[in-house]
Write a structure and sequence with these properties.
With 478 residues, the chain is of the alpha/beta class. The protein has two domains: 13-47 and 197-476, no CATH class; 52-191, Response regulator (Rossmann fold). It is 38% helix and 24% strand. The protein has helices at residues 13-28, 38-47, 75-89, 105-113, 133-138, 154-166, 179-186, 188-196, 209-215, 224-232, 236-249, 258-277, 287-292, 302-310, 321-334, 445-448, 460-470, and strands at residues 52-59, 93-100, 120-125, 144-148, 171-174, 199-203, 218-222, 252-253, 282-285, 314-317, 339-346, 351-356, 373-378, 383-389, 396-403, 408-419, 428-435, 452-456, 473-476. Helix 3 (75-89) links the parallel strand 1 (52-59) and strand 2.
């Protein structure tokens, strides 16, 4: 999803577009200046990622007998068409198609017995078979999508899905005349497969082993001392190149001297080197705990997290593993980076203000435009270097958090209203007008903690599908 944004008058539109062109050219020329081509190497890894194997079951009745859609219907031709459209729309999925004309449970059981290595199922009701195929497939425990061919499988679709959902199966449903909705839902299998083959580094904190049980994602602990060794090995000349780039691309630098930006750049390169060492595509650091206790050098990772997020990877602060996984999952699902925040409520404006000292500046993904940013010091201790991102205004956002222990996701939405300029608290402050009841929005924080993760765009439907396939429940907090 790529949207255009309305930007505040921190620069006129012509100069903003000029800056976007400069940023894009800068990324393309990274290797010319000896900078690591993080974004391109990640894209290459994505293209070579293992495909999800999905059993595609087309269920339909005998065409010679009266039934929906009608007697004599060309099921063979329609199935050929659907298979082609799915393969074209989801090139990163390996479909394993099979046709079923008997509604007996034994037919589905035969399929399950041969499917040890599949990642999930699609049951496509091309007609009303009126059997137990969907219900039997759902017992596999693997994620499943049931699709209705409108005016063909609708009766069986409605009764089967309702019953399977009530029993708590990992099942999502698509019943739409827009085939893009089928494609969007099926692509969730790609996201789940990517999570299973991903690694996130957890620096200075214990890795949560439950994450791997739920998502399949490897969470690898890295000690402070190892990270410090990697940091000290970074070439200062390489760090200076990145610092110069960030300073040149910033709208302005307010507090930090250049040496602080260079230390932040060295920490960024250390993170890149650690991620390459362990083949990771995400990293989260117990940054405040490490710096305040003296276990880490006073080199804040904030600007490095900004760069990782802009390049399609994941950088997450405070060793918050729920937020890290939320960013990984949603970035794969939407193509957009997430903004972790400590929210503040302003009931007088019906607003929630998302505040933190790091935020992406390419909120629509690596191929989208860059919004302006300032380089600031870290707010709480007035040290180091971070960024204030001036994000697009008048745009839909989706804010949420996945919890692998609760098997739930909490979500609310809004429209961006203002980049708040206040010296108090964290540097980036994005105000969003809440869609829903702002007083209800105040009632879940004791159970969920302070952090939420914000993504540009309306992703509610995608979130509903992916949570269904994970077997999670959705809590709408506003």
């Amino acid at each position: 999803m790529r949207c255009s944004g309305n930007y505040e008058a921190v620069c006129d539109r012509r100069s903003f577009l000029g800056r976007c062109s400069t940023c894009t050219a800068g990324i393309a020329a990274m290797s010319m200046f000896g900078l690591p081509a993080v974004c391109s190497s990640f894209a290459s890894a994505q293209q070579n990622a293992e495909k999800a194997k999905i059993r595609l079951i087309f269920a339909y009745p005998d065409p010679e007998k009266p039934n929906w859609p009608n007697i004599g219907y060309d099921f063979t031709g329609r199935i050929r068409e659907l298979t082609g459209k799915l393969s074209q729309g989801c090139p990163n999925i390996e479909f394993l198609p099979v046709n079923v004309m008997s509604g007996e449970a034994q037919e589905a059981e035969k399929i399950l017995q041969s499917d040890n290595n599949v990642d999930g199922y699609i049951v496509y009701l091309v007609g009303c078979l009126w059997g137990n195929i969907p219900e039997t497939i759902a017992t596999s425990g693997k994620p499943m999508i049931i699709v209705d061919e409108l005016f063909a499988g609708s009766g069986e679709f409605l009764t089967s899905y309702a019953g399977m959902k009530r029993k708590g199966h990992k099942i999502a449903a698509v019943s739409s005349s827009r085939f893009e909705d089928v494609i969007e839902s099926v692509k969730c299998f790609e996201c789940l497969k990517h999570m299973q083959t991903s690694t996130a580094l957890v620096v200075g904190a214990e890795a949560d082993s439950v994450i791997q049980l739920v998502y399949g994602t490897t969470m690898r602990k890295v000690e402070f001392r190892e990270m410090n060794d990697i940091y000290r090995a970074v070439e200062k000349t390489e760090a200076k190149k990145w610092a110069d780039r960030w300073v040149s691309e910033a709208e302005k630098v307010i507090e930090p001297p250049l040496i602080e930006v260079e230390k932040a750049a060295a920490m960024y390169l250390a993170m890149v080197n650690a991620m390459q060492k362990y083949h990771a595509n995400a990293i989260t650091i117990n940054c405040l705990g490490g710096i305040y206790s003296g276990q880490m050098p006073d080199a804040y990772p904030c600007l490095g997290f900004m760069q990782l997020d802009n390049d399609g990877l994941v950088g997450a602060c405070e060793a918050d593993q729920r937020s890290t996984v939320t960013k990984m999952l949603m970035s794969n699902l939407t193509g957009c980076p997430g903004f972790i925040s400590d929210p503040v409520i302003d009931t007088s404006k019906n607003q929630i203000i998302y505040a933190h000292c790091v935020a992406p500046t390419k909120v629509y993904g690596p191929d989208g435009p860059s919004n302006p940013y300032h380089i600031r010091d870290h707010s709480e201790d007035r040290k180091g270097a971070c960024n204030r991102s001036l994000m697009p205004i008048g745009e839909q956002t989706t804010t949420l958090l996945f919890d692998h222990h609760k098997k739930q996701v909490i979500i609310h939405q809004g429209i961006t209203a203002e980049n708040v300029d206040d010296d108090k608290a964290c540097r980036t402050k994005l105000a969003v007008e809440v869609q829903g009841d702002i007083y209800k929005l105040m009632t879940y924080w004791d159970e969920w903690g302070w952090h939420r993760v914000t993504f540009y765009g309306d992703h509610k439907r995608k979130v509903s599908t992916i949570t269904a396939l994970l077997g999670f429940d959705v809590i709408e907090e506003a």
